[in-house]
Structure of Starch-binding associating with outer membrane:
Amino acid sequence: MKKYIIKIVALFTVTVTAVSCTDDLTVLPNDRLVIDTYYTTENDFRKGVDYAYDAFKIAGYYSGDNSQAIIPDILSDNLIQNPQGRRSNNSAYIFDIAANVGDVTSAYGGGYAVAARANAVLDKINNLSPGAFRNNIEAEAKAIRAIAHFDIVRRYCKIPTQSADAAGSIGIAYVEIYDPYLVTTRNLNVSQVYDKILNDLLFAEQNISQTASVGKLTKAAIQGMLSRVYLYKGDYDNVILWGQKALAISPSVGTNANFKNIWADSSNDGVLFKILNSSIENIKTGSAYNQTVGGQIKSEYVVDYDLYTKFAANDIRKSSYILTSVFNGKTYNNVIKYKQATGKPIEAVDIKYLRTAEVVLNVSEAMFKKGNESGALALLNTLRAQRYTGYVPGIETGQNLWNAIMLERRLELAFETDRFFTLKRLALPVQRSNFGPEADGAGNPASILSLPVASHKWQLPIPQGAIDNNTQIQQNPGY
């Protein structure tokens, strides 16, 4: 008798391996899980969903040099390459984007690996008796699947608000079954992919029951995720609806007093969902930004000086996100969001995937779009009151209010994967500064300063390995 293991491979393929039934095969290291005789008890399903959460930490998602904690900021105007670094992710930085470049293609396989683990749970869901436990497990698995597909589609396809033709343009495969031999095609347009993401999230919002852990999805986290997806879709009424529901459950944006502790993993104030990283796992989520060498921070990428100057002296985010220090005789503004968590090895920090502050910004932006400037301003002031010492409420209106919302979004979500996608969904170019990498802006600027709105490179290429494995998958235009 044989048992079968799923093994996720990073090019959107899944292999099946037969092993002896005498082995202890409950959960195998890192990338394998028995499915043929496993999902029979509630404990099995709990472990299976936890295994799907764990997939967010695989290489190409939130670990390794190609970590998605850094790639979207490298592609934007938030970071500049440190010439004393290893030149990691250089192809992404200079927009030398191609189907065989791991910098920009690794999230594709990583996302489908997460979805496959969620689908393995859903494939066996009928083994559970109807009731609250089953509903919650199904809700978590579908929400995980939705998040994985959302992270794929926003990278490799147009965003609905990006252009007039975006909604009808080529989407991705939305994989809803577990089948190791499944041959997929990009048979959906972008709008249809978003509809499937939303269907999964809406099911999850109605059926999820857990409330305790920021390391697992909760009702507030799913409502916050709905506000994000609807913002990308341009459905501002639903951004407001679901964002306000999330804020009703979890209103704190992270107080000024607690804010630094969020990044030390000693506080969850204002965190809706994060990817847990234990001392035992010791996944170096921060090493893509920098390492510690001889007691000094050696950064791969540092904060662009133009962005650095936008952080006011009385802004708690400045000292929470950035540390100015010397490496090998040069002074740099280093990103420290992923540097050191309390009681954990250096650079082994939890990934804050979704925070209440983003939901506030989503709703504020949507209210502005709908003409409710007073509501937009009130929410923006709620956030700013917890970021600036001695803050006096703002009174902006019109274009000045819009500019303030966009500034706070950039500052609040800097180095949290948002900037590239904000520019993309608003159809704005990447326009980097003429400053160099040193702490005062000295040194040589980036060799490539802009990415125009019309460039095909906003849609990253499908990895060539995925196409080689499945010739039914169509490459994006321009590659």
About this structure: DSSP finds 16 helices and 13 strands in the chain. Residues 28 and 34 are 8 Å apart (CA to CA). The first strand starts at residue 2 and ends at 9. The domain at 41-281+349-457+464-469 is CATH 1.25.40.390 (Serine Threonine Protein Phosphatase 5, Tetratricopeptide repeat).
